[in-house]
Amino acid sequence: MNPKLSQIIAKICLGLAMLFTISILIFIIIYILFHGLPILTYQFLSSPIQEMGKKGGIFPSIVSTLYLVITSVVVATPLGVGTAVYITEYTKKNKITDIIQFGSDCLAGIPSIIYGLFGFTFFVIFLGMGWSILSGSLTLAIMMLPTIIRTSEQAIRSVPQSYRDVTYSLGGSKWQGIKNIVIPKALPGILTGVILSMGRALSETAALIFTAGMSIRTPTSIFSSGRSMAVHFYTLAREGLSLPMAYGTASVLIISILFINFISYILMNQYLKKYS
Amino acid sequence: MKNHQEKIIEKSILIVAFSTVFILFLITLFIFKEGLPFILNNGLTRLFFSTNWSPSDGSYGIIPMLIGSLSITFGALILGVPLGVACAIYLAEFSSKTLRNILKPMIELLAGIPSVVYGFIGMIFLAPVIRSYFGGPGLSILTASIVLGIMILPTIISISLDALLMLPRSYKEGSMALGATQWQTVTGVLLPAARSGILAGVILGMGRAIGETMAVIMVTGNSVKVPSSFIDSTRTLTANIALEMGYAIGEHRQALFATAIILFVFIIILNILAMKIIKKRRI
């Protein structure tokens, strides 16, 4: 075939593939919001779950979700950022960093159902935490680690070496340099990772069913059981309890995800502008 | 004094850094602790040489679910790989930088959509379409393959895109200087040079497809039998664990954990393979 012609055909086909992929995204968002937005009233957001979700609202699952997301972030962030600091600041690339990297990459690939089983046998039963926000959050925290480590590592690496040199030349110690210069400078990048991993916690279902339980009551502490919005949505949809309620819950999920991605996008862009 | 404090901080950060490895060890330990007794008592034969899964009679053949998982993963790859690689080529070579900066966050958003939402759309929108065009129950291997094919797109696109963007500029410039068109450059130079990176993306996508649970539960119909065609209902290994774990006790529970071991080992192997491929490229 004429190279010029095949160039044109290829360009069109590749463009169509891209268009198709983006259309799927837009279709999903519009489909959910179109059916769900009419359901979203103050009443829906603030009422308890009634008759297993057929009536009432989703207030308890909003509270559960907030509990889960916040607790897991609080646990995962120091671990993830600490790991990134160690890899980047305290050691050169060697066997130890390879092993840590391997651990992190493996954690990233493990499917959520396996995390669910692990959380169930380890946190719920072995450590006796029962079905609770705490068990769920700790499981989620492990699932978040790889994202936080990877983004923090990139963010810390992109802080120019000269910043550190200045600290040392002023008589500052390594830790002072990290605490006062490197981490603050890398903060927008680190936050991007933390916020993105909040999205993961928000969407998670399989791991939470076995760890946080399915209670429809509003959790009062991290030791109560509670079902997150994603779990509640799954139950509504799969058991065919109420389609409108399912659409409503899905809309809240989608809007939260859009919001999270938007924030992390803004942060990332600011960050990139600063260093490139 | 200050030096002493620095030492303590360094030691504690080292301990934190090993948390991933420690957790990986714990996960392995606890999954094996629950499932290994079943494998040791029965060997793998009881799981692998039977097409009958009925825990109430003590039959634990995972072949129907294995076929379900593999056929859906295969179907997802058939759809997801060409589409994903095409998108990656488009983003790397044919889109302007501004357009790429708009499209990339949208791909990330595609990765952020909860799997239950994918499953829901598959169940409520796609399954009826499949039912009316292809027949069958609608909740089928085909439906699940399409849903999973879309779900693995972000993985395949982002890793393939990285592989393409990492290539030295000289490759492209050399080819264009010889008078090749952009498309000839892509097929003749860039794709062959980036093939191992793309392969890594495909392997990770495969891992994601095999491990996916909730979306698959919602679109496969979950019947335990060897499927006879691609519009037939099926159940995957992951779905089997999620659906039955809630009430499984004794040997049944052990058998489910044994299935989890098989999944776990398989996915770790896939990950190591992908890591090896990616690392080789970097050196």
TrEMBL record, chain A:
Pfam families: BPD_transp_1 (PF00528)
Assigned keywords, A-Z: Cell membrane, Membrane, Transmembrane, Transmembrane helix, Transport
Membrane-topology descriptor: Multi-pass membrane protein
Gene3D superfamilies for the chain: MetI-like
GO-annotated biological processes: phosphate ion transmembrane transport
GO CC term (a single one): plasma membrane
One MF annotation (Gene Ontology) recorded for this entry: phosphate transmembrane transporter activity
Keyword Disulfide bond: no
Coiled coil: none
Record-linked InterPro entries: MetI-like, MetI-like_sf, Phosphate_PstA
Bilayer-spanning residue ranges: 12-37, 57-87, 99-118, 245-268
Localization terms from the record: Cell membrane
Statement: the UniProt record of this protein carries the keyword Glycosyltransferase: no
ABC transmembrane type-1 domain span: 62-264
Recorded family membership: Belongs to the binding-protein-dependent transport system permease family. CysTW subfamily.
PANTHER family: PHOSPHATE TRANSPORT SYSTEM PERMEASE PROTEIN PSTA-RELATED (PTHR43470:SF3)
Name of the featured protein: Phosphate transport system permease protein PstA
From TrEMBL, chain B:
Residue intervals of the ABC transmembrane type-1 domain: 66-274
InterPro entries reported in the protein's UniProt record: MetI-like, MetI-like_sf, Phosphate_PstC, Phosphate_Transport_Permease
The keyword Transport is assigned to this record: yes
SUPFAM superfamilies on file: MetI-like
A UniProt-annotated Pfam family: BPD_transp_1
Subcellular location: Cell membrane
GO cellular component: plasma membrane
Family recorded in the similarity comment: Belongs to the binding-protein-dependent transport system permease family. CysTW subfamily.
The name this protein goes by in its record: Phosphate transport system permease protein
Species: Candidatus Gottesmanbacteria bacterium CG1_02_37_22
